Amino acid sequence: MRVLAVCSVAAMLAVGVLSAESDETWTVQKKQELIRMMTAEYVTSNALIPRSKKPLEFYPDGSYDATQWSGAMEKAGAAARLGDLVQITKVELKGNKVILELNHGISGGRRWWNKVQISSGSGGGLGGGNNRTKSLGETPHAPGGTSLAIVFDGEVPFKTHEELKELLKPVLDFEQRSATELYLDKIEPKYREAIESKKAIVGMDKDMVLLAKGRPDKKIRDFKDGVETEDWIFGKPPGDILFITFNDDDEAIRVRETHANLGGQVHNPGPIERN
Predict the structure, then answer these.
(1) Considering only CA atoms, which of 44, 46, 39, 47 is closest in space to residue 98?
(2) Contacts of 188 (CB under 8 A, 6+ apart)
(3) What whole-number distance in Å separates Cα of residue 108 and Cα of residue 53?
(4) pLDDT tens digits, residue range 32-91?
(5) CB 129, CB 123: distance < 8 Å
(6) Interatomic CA distance for residues 197 and 153, integer angstroms
(7) d(Cα 167, Cα 46) in Å, to the nearest integer?
(8) How far from chain centre, in Å, is Cα 187?
């Protein structure tokens, strides 16, 4: 059974870009070039990817075998979560499939790469133009390894490494966005702007506030008139103090700023409310 993959929009874009098939055919040299350019690439996961000894199949239109993927998840757990960093450790063209091993397969996982730096950019592969250096510590590492297979109707048509990356977008992101960046892409612009400005506003949930302000210095729960709330307090006297009140749905319903003098006395002619 096929169902739409998580990033179906990206898949549709990929299908549109690659709809016109190339007249080129595979040669030994072209296969070697593809394998060289793809092998050792560091990417971030665009989906929850199970651990599996047998390659997890998905198709050029972005659909996948839901029974196989869910069964693998139940049996062996996750190889990569959304936003996790993975490495392509082997690429193979076999029959009607392009098979990619991630993190050395099911027996692999986190290894030495958390201590090194890599380059990413439009050049791709093991070095290209317009690259920027990024520490691997900036992105969570995948807990395990697995294998993926793009399955075509017939023999694998000729694809450049850039075209293959487009087909892989539903599951792998070669732009190496962090989990935070992936999350920010999915929320309303006003919340993203507030987070990037390190501000808290009404309507945020706790995850958004944590991204914007970090962990609070203190938490206080209250139950009044049948309503339960929780206050997060940022800052200590003397200095500015920020109070954020959440309802029982973990939504910020009030954001107040004030100033506390030495000794804990709060002085503020009018709290600032952020909406």
Answers:
(1) 39
(2) none
(3) 11
(4) 889 888 888 888 898 899 999 899 999 999 888 889 999 999 999 999 988 888 889 899
(5) yes
(6) 48
(7) 12
(8) 14
Cα 189 from Cα 49, distance rounded (Å):
28
Q: List all residues 6 or more positions away from 2 whose beta carbon is below 8 Å from its beta carbon.
A: 59, 63, 64, 65, 66
Structure tokens at 108: 């692999």
Q: Considering only CA atoms, which of 183, 178, 176, 241 is closest in space to residue 210?
A: 183
Q: Specify the pairing of strand 146-151 against strand 239-246.
A: unpaired
Share of the chain above pLDDT 90, in %: 43
- In this prediction the pTM is 0.51
CA distances in angstroms from 219 to 122, 158, 194, listed in the order given: 45, 58, 22
Q: How far apart are CA 177 and CA 44, in angstroms?
A: 7
The domain segmentation of the chain, as residue ranges, is 2-177, 187-273
Sign of the torsion angle spanned by Cα atoms 112, 113, 114, 117: positive
In words, the CATH class of domain 187-273 is: alpha beta
Unique residue bearing structure tokens 């000894």? 53
Three-state SS string over 110-137 comes to: CCHHHHCEEEEECCCCCCCCCEEEEEHH
Cα–Cα distance for residue pair 45/206, rounded to 1 Å: 24
Give the bridge partners for 259, in sequence order.
240, 267
Nearest to 258 by CA among 275, 238, 231: 238
